[in-house]
Amino acid sequence: MTLHTDRHFEGELQTLQQLLLRMGGLVEQQIARAIESLVERDSDLARDVIERDREVNQLDILIDEECLKVIALHQPAAGDLRLVTTALKINTDLERIGDMAVNVCERAIELNEEPTLKPYIDIPHMAKEAQAMVRTSLDSFVQRDTELAVQVIDQDDVVDALAHQLYRELLSYMAEDPKTISRATKILLISKYLERIADHATNIAEMVVFMVDGTMIRHSTSLPGEDSDLE
After folding, report:
1. Which residue, among 127, 129, 123, 128, has the nearest Cα to 184 in the 3D structure?
2. How far is the C-alpha of 145 from the C-alpha of 151, rounded, in Å?
3. What is the pTM of this model?
4. 187 lies in which domain range?
5. Domain with 137 in it: what CATH number?
6. How many CB atoms lie within 10 A of CB 216?
7. 17/11 Cα distance (integer angstroms)
8. Helix (H), strand (E) at residue 178
9. In a domain, 179, yes or no
10. Which residues contact 170 (CB under 8 A, 6 or more apart)?
11. Which of 118, 171, 183, 206 has the most other CB atoms within 10 Å of its CB?
């Protein structure tokens, strides 16, 4: 492979990275605006977020095409191949995060037609944590930083704890007054969507560990730097 080809290959990898960051920024914004549409009871904003999901889908297609082009033209091996396959996986997770933001908006539109059940406190907190996880997982990818990736994986417990807390609270609402069941169920669904966003961010972080170390930690009981019980 010539030096010119090496530079061309590196340029394509940089383009791929920039596209992923662009998509990551877009889905982060989609999450924030989806939650804003709920808290501010702004159904027009929710519809705008749903409409903008087309941009996420277009980037999804573009990144997939870019990854396949890199594989076809350069036949990367070892670390470079792990980078491209990680980019493909990240792209899928980001597209699904965009879908979760759309789902939040659909429930927000429904909830905005009814009286507010309770102040939205836990939901915005969950969204903020999930957004941070998405951002940090992409930072770990760009910086090839497994320590950042492990931070994301650990942070998933925070989102899960908030979801469980909200579940218990809403369960008491439904038990005390059956008329709240419909609204409480929709809020629970939004909580579940935010949990899934955090899960996708965790997937990204786990793939970064694979990209950097060649170690697949999904479904593993130990993280990088931890002692395993397995001999």
Report:
1. 123
2. 10
3. 0.89
4. 9-213
5. 1.20.58.220
6. 11
7. 10
8. none
9. yes
10. 184, 187, 188
11. 206
